[in-house]
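Input record (one chain):
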Amino acid sequence: MALMTQDKTILVIGTYDTKSDELDYLTKAIQGQGGKVLTMDVSVLGDPAMPTDISKHQVAEAANSSIDEAIDSGDENTAMQIMARGSSALCQMLHKAGRIDGMIAMGGSMGTDLALDCARALPLGVPKYIISTIAFSTLIPAERLATDTQMILWAGGLYGLNSVCKASLSQAAGAVLGAARAVEMPTQKKPMVGMTSLGSSCLKYMKVLKPALEERGFEVAIFHATGMGGMAFENLAREGAFACVMDFAPQEMGNHMMGSSVNSGPNRLRGAAASKTPAIIAPGCVDLVDFPGWQPFPDQFSDRSFHAHNRLLASATLNAEERRQVAREIGARASESKAPVHIISPKQGVEEWDKPGEPAHEPQSHAAFVEELAKSVQPPVGFTELDCHINDAQFCETALAIFDEWLAQGIVVRKAN
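The corresponding structure, as predicted from the sequence alone:
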């Protein structure tokens, strides 16, 4: 069978002093499908059996350092952080120069740590594949992941080639090259509104707001606020990808505050502020804290009302004082932005399960949140309190009215980013 045209170049990253056989296998698997390869060595102590396209010395120099400095540090973590800075800087430079169409890296915990930085250096749509012995592990926090990182578990790959790890390597080779050939990069022909939500059984506003915003000439991207979705939303907001954000499900911030693993890191509600993107915020689902459904709730929440969404995800209600804490933090983070921010507070509830008769209906605790939020929001942050539920038509009408006013004032612009 004839090889496909060599039309895409994949950057292969790894420690060529200890993983040369595995990296060579990966390279040949990509080339065997007609792809091109650029190799980058990120090892420190040893030297590769064969020269790579980008040497470890070039990587260290890209971090304004040297291999000697990395070795003299006497600490493998410090040394690999030097290599991570250099390799991620080179990834960005190589992509901007049009020399690579995707990247793939392999490693254990050290190599994965470096690979995560390399992936984050590349924009959305550029394939980023990580072959890792800790793929999908709780060792990897949400905020370290690039928006569209792909991972595969490097089973049996700790030391040396074997038939088990070849299965992972060959799949990864096909995946990254196939992605580079198939990807439809973001076009940015229309300005985009970034919105957060949960499933429509819980929060329903997206069904009204998405078509209404599209009628106004905007593209709408809705992010599932269950940890990874909020992470992707914040990454793109921080990069200035949105003309406006409608962050109506910031529950991941409360999850982080309450110690839940279902979170997007410590900087939820801060991405838009960092890029001076105008933001409309509402407290969808902040009355709840999420936990993995397959684990027992922590003792702190064992006596709370709860909703089992499925076998993966379950939620417990927050008490009045916890909701006050969340309200204060929303107000504090909103005040950090130098761009316009407007908070909408629905007094009758913030998700479908807090309605009368539902398991999360705790009106006194919600009243405490509403009261604290009103006290916590300070000018110039805008604030509108509504005598309705977040899933009522009045909420959507208010959000669109604020958006339209900002559009008329030129705060939200129709120009694509």
